[in-house]
Amino acid sequence: GSAAVVAMHAAANQAPESWQSDFLNQLEELVGAELRLDVESRMAPVSDALAPSLALLPKEVNGLSSSAARSAIHQQLVQRHGNHLSDFVAKGEPGSVSSPALGLCEHFPARVCDLFYQYFDSDTLDLDEIGLLAATTEAL
């Protein structure tokens, strides 16, 4: 319930976990230190903004389904920037997107997409993963 979301939300505002640091290090190698710092500065505000929406979305045993994660990221992009996730998906194929990484990769360089697939190509994602993916998407 909401206690789990609050716990996930609190965890998202702590120091990055090892996998997050690994992702950020690899992202920095690909796009530079300035973008990495931009992503890091966005992580807490994005997670804060996402938490109420995530509490309302359907959950799987290990987190939110990839479709729920895409929905949350879409809502975040619309609210904060007026961008629609459909802008990131190949025209005519939104129903074929099975993971958050796949739905976002049309818009980004292949090397960044490879990194997205490495870390986010899963059936379920937790708040930390969704927050980092959304923060990275915003920064790019």
Counting helices, strands and paired strands, the structural category is: mainly alpha
User: Which residues form runs of ≥5 with pLDDT under 50?
Assistant: 1-14, 86-98
Give the helices and strands as they follow along the chain. HHHEEHHHEH
Strand content: 5-15%
Mean pLDDT over the residues: 74
Helix content: 55-70%
Task: Please describe the biggest sheet, giving its number of strands, its sense, and whether it closes into a barrel.
Answer: 3 strands, antiparallel
Cα gyration radius (Å): 14 Å
Give a topology summary.
Elements: H1 2-12, H2 18-31, H3 33-56, E1 59-60, E2 63-65, H4 66-81, H5 100-104, H6 110-120, E3 124-125, H7 127-139
Antiparallel strand pairs: 1-2, 2-3
Helix pairs in contact: 1-3, 2-3, 2-6, 3-4, 3-7, 4-7
What do these coordinates show?
- With 140 residues, the protein is mainly alpha-helical.
- It is built from 7 helices and 3 strands.
- The chain has a 3-stranded antiparallel sheet with strand order 1-2-3.
- A hairpin with a 2-residue loop joins strand 1 and strand 2.
- It is globular.
- The N and C termini lie far apart (33 Å).
